[in-house]
Structures
1.
Amino acid sequence: MRHRLWPYFFVGPAVAAIATGFLYPLAKVVWFSLYSGSLGALSYVGIANYAGLWQDPVFFQSVLNNLKLLTTVPVMTILALSIALILNAQVRGWRQYRAIVFFPYILPATAIGLVFGYLLERNGVLNTQLRSWQLGWLAKDWLGSAANVVPTIGGVIIWQQLGFGVVVFAAALLAVPQELVEAAQLDGANAWQIQRMILIPYIRHTIEFFVVVEAITVLSSIFTYVYVLTKGGPAEASSVLEYYIFENGFENGAIGVASAAVVVLLVLACILIAFYLRLRARATDTGR
């Protein structure tokens, strides 16, 4: 019996840490989602907070904006993979180029938001420069227009996250057995055929991992960009789920509504994680 219990002795601290740092807060969030009012005066309302979400146009706008921003994932995946393939050819200075591309990823999101806010405001650096080049027709109200604000935030996200994808893909490409490439070259394959038939299929699992990670990031880790750049404006046009949660939980004091939105966000993230695990299980079953 002692030997059977011995492994649990080692696992116990990790399980306790997970339960304390994740499971207990998660249970409290679910519990709060069934109540309304402030922390000092909560009243049980059941699933009324969830029903209220579906009647709130701001919530739907926030979900829609998150879905729109998910379109940045394929864009940054294609760009990152293209750059990684170019760097994998070891062009002159490829290590320096990789560091330059990765640099935005390590910058604080707050600093990025402040800089781009200064660049992209109506009379900011970008529009001023465009007008000086007689290209005023290209100048837009990038952050103050409901039509432009979400694509603008998406562009900032791509710029910041692109370096992560380049480094991940470049590292995966370095692990491709060189003999595969040499054999293809001996068979007369050109550079494009080697990339399409050997390199990209070989790092397919890495690409899938990156897509899921970035999708979760776009769903649950872009609050700072929205808060610093637009504060959800104009007229909630750039609100996302994270900002909706912040606005209801901290500014409006609607703890129950915010907690219900957190549960919805968690469910969406779990769907993406389950999709990725399903892909990995299928790949394992087929031996790929």
2.
Amino acid sequence: MNKTQQQKVALVAGASGIVGSQLVKTLLQNEWEVIGLSRNALSHPDNIQVVNVDLLDAQNSAQALQPLSRITHIFYSAWVNAANWTEMVEPNVTMLRNLVSNIEKTAPLQIVSLMQGYKVYGAHLGPFKTPARESDPAIPGAEFNAAQLTWLSHFQRGKTWHWNAIRPGVVGSAVPGNAMNLAMSIALYASLCKAQDLPLRFPGSEQTWHSIVDHTDAGLLAEATLWAATSPAAENQAFNVNNGDIWRWSELWPHIARWFELEYAPPVRLSFHQLFKDYRTTWRELAGQRLMETDILQLNDGSFADFVFGWDYDMFGDGSKLRRAGFTRMQATHEMFFSLFTQLRAARIIP
């Protein structure tokens, strides 16, 4: 069996996250064999094989990964948090290194797909050049996404496999329980506002109200990731992946308010994290027997939303390189949010 005929076997690190969970579904829909990695979980909602491994432990990694001799593609969206950006570099590079260096020893590896973000452009530091482009010069200082790609690109030299790096905007997903799910935070907030007969007040500053943040539908992201993993045009390339449209919050927020049949109100800096704690009892009463989760903090703690609505500067990238290379799907961002809210309502996550 030659390389083009070979069964594609994906190893997904971070298979239960808002990025990885949708990627697993997309891979399965395209008839890939999929294996997930987890430090603790024994099962996955899509019933894929799950391998338990601590990627921070070199010996455990070698033992757990050695039997995976059929892997053709690694999709890496796992990460470990730390107290600050500097302390995040070493463990996150270590995890990637332990995975790739072990798999390539025994498997017919073709592609390593690394999930990144706009932090490689310095987005986490404050105002930065927008639109961010893949050709922008590197930013000095500690940042684990950039450090991972530096290691990966150097390690790949002279090898038969290739890498690609995927850089989404804020990812839109309906997966509950994930701290980085902005759509979930907005949906919970809007549901509370409706229950309290309050308008949907924008929770950021006046500067944030007029800023641009690009969004990336999780389904579109998964399809783009799959395209990059199978296209020669994507070999050893980085791509921004966004929906392809541009909105200011001042334009997008009224659309969101109308979907929930709410009036909207001018900006006031609010903390979703604090609001969700303040309204924990209110949500429990609102949920009653109708909703799947009576503890709002189990659905989302609001901290990532506070981070996003704290950006008082533009946060968007140029997604045209991806389209020029051959992936042409786009997604209207307001329709993405409407679809996610509809899914959350159908799943009885919000009323």
3.
Amino acid sequence: MPEAAAATFEDHLAREIIHSERVRMAILAGLLGALIAFYVLGYALFRVDHHLRFLTSGVFLYIIAVIALLLFYELAVRHLIGRWLRQGRSVPGALRYLNAFVETSVPSILILLVSRELNPQYVLQSPLSHLYAIFIVLSTLRLDFRLSVFTGLVAAVEYVALSFAYLGGGSGVVEGGAGAAAGTPFAAPPFYVAKGAMLLLAGLAAAFVAHQLKRRVGNAYRALQERQRVLSAFGQQVSPAIAEELLRASTRLESKRSFVCVMFTDIRNFTPLVENKTPEEIVAFQNVFFSEAVDVVNRNHGIINQFLGDGFMATFGAPVATGRDCANALAAARGLTAGVDRLAQAGRLPPLKIGVGLHAGAAVSGNVGSDLRMQYSITGNVVILAARIEQLNKEYGSQILASAEVLAAGGEDAAAAASLGPVHVKGREQPIELFRLA
């Protein structure tokens, strides 16, 4: 089961990463569209400005053409990936690397083309080189450490290679009038090597961010799965406080031996009480009683394992022990009898009596069932004895019977309770000492 869940998560995450890739492409397409609009506006307003001699028609056409081609390329690949997703197909890893290479090479292509019109040293320092950073930053949305490193590496290698090609090995003399930068750091190879190193570091930083995002997504998913696992195992059996404690402690639900206090409760004379009621009235009656029971048991840090039609079984001490489990069970038993009397006085329940049996001891708790249906259960003689003790309430005319083990572990003085002495319980050879508490 955990392996299947992990495989399902990996498949789901892979699809979400591809969706993130499509989002990245949409963002990039929007940025490219805005860049075209910005450049067209700049060219229209400032092409006659003698300070902006680089805004020639050739430069303008090169930049607009390359950016427009990249825009259409992004939209086409995004459409292709969307179609593959709808068909349930995966995106080849090679395509993702090829796409990263094509995108990251666009600034290099622009530098090559614009350098045909302008001094390459100016071009290498122009805003065109800053386009590398856009592709590196957006690579984080790929949620792939290696792809982000690859993007930074391509940018660094291409930029440094172009710099060395145009610098001519550091002479500072390049075609087109490089003398304007001669004797300055802008003509020295280390300047461009340093910029290349910055691009590579930016790729590593983007890779780290992508890895952290992916890891946090995985952690969030596993936490959600853990919460769902607990809720699936217990349903509405546990109080929110116990559920949160289980999640906080990451308590495993495998079978384990523990000391528990088990409570069985039964509504006395249930059949005569509902004999003349409609099914809807019977359900309403049960809901009032069980609502009170759930509230009382939850308030005392127990769980209701089973509803039995005219009663229920509750456990204190598993899956989470408080150290006061028997005391909590005793408090719940007394609270339930008081709550039933209060509801009867308010007219929400007919006058009735309940029987409660309490016993404590070792039991095995954990999930029981198959992969298709699991249920959290408590197994052991303590469960059988608690059920038998509850049935003895009819014989003794009592409402709460508890074993000596419960009183001892609950910290109550046995001398202050009404002892029934050693009592033979059905199915057990040795008698058990019982106390009548109500």
4.
Amino acid sequence: MRAVIVGGGIGGLAAVVALRRVGIEAVVVERAVEIREVGAGLSLWSNAINALRELRLAEQVIAAGSVFERTVTQTPSGRVIATTDLAEISRVAGAPCVCIHRAVLQRILAEALPAGVVCTGARCTSFDDATAILENGERLEADVLIGADGISSVIRERLHGAHSPRYAGYTCWRGVICDDGTLPERSALVTIGAGRQFGVFPCGTGQVYWFLTSNAPPGTRRKPDLTSAAIERTPEDAIIQNDIFDRPALRWWGRGCVTLLGDAAHATTPNLGQGACMAIEDAVVLAHCLRTIQPVEAALRQYERLRIPRTTAVIRNSWQSGRMFQLDQPALESVRNWFFGTSVAARLGMRMFRDLLLYRVPTL
């Protein structure tokens, strides 16, 4: 069996590693002329670390990132609203929660592949059955075609039509800096208020990752509108700004021998930190289905049946969380902050984290 994966991001690279782990010949076509090490930090919760174990890469990722066991949410004045203790959930899951630089994770995935598996400078513009059609007219025949080409996926557009992504109402700045020792050990700190979120996570030896969101019209480009030591210590050219978009959940992903994976299938806002986690889970579930189910079409439809309910819930819950976190009306903020501190909110939060983190992918 031969698979062609369109897109060389985290999801595409994880998919080719997973497929080759189960004996499926797989290649990636990536439109960029090189796999560039870009981005900032990302969180890989216990569910993703367990999925990476099936790729035999978990220990490398844990060693290259930083384990965190709690998140502390506070107001801009420093008043703690809530503390989420993840240590027990991680213990039950059998895997820690880790923050790692996106470029480091990308490098670990790429280095797990033999030379020639990732074809760069190859822009896929369409497909015919499971054959990828490149911009230069070349046709890459396969038994399975997987669209892992991100939120602006060509494969998704050909399957579902052209639709603009959904703007969440806020923009985001990100950066990685040297750790100055102010962040509590194995802890992440998130400040919410006045239409902003500001988070700081440990992110590998001697580093911390920060992000700042702010309500703004789409396309707004400006310097971060918050005074912070972390931001001030970040060189201006090292700060990444992106508007936040997602895509509403699909009821079906693919047809025939074609399917979607990662952001191409279920782009989500970053409020639950599950974007990369879901893509890595997708990769393992896809490989398992293709290894155990025949014919290919039946394997892909089973993969989609397994993944759509979970990723749909993540899209919905992340969108709703963002709406709460980005409130910029003082009266509503006060109600939110009060509720976050109640036992009811704590129980609901822990239930959500258990559902996310205790999920186990199939064994490869």
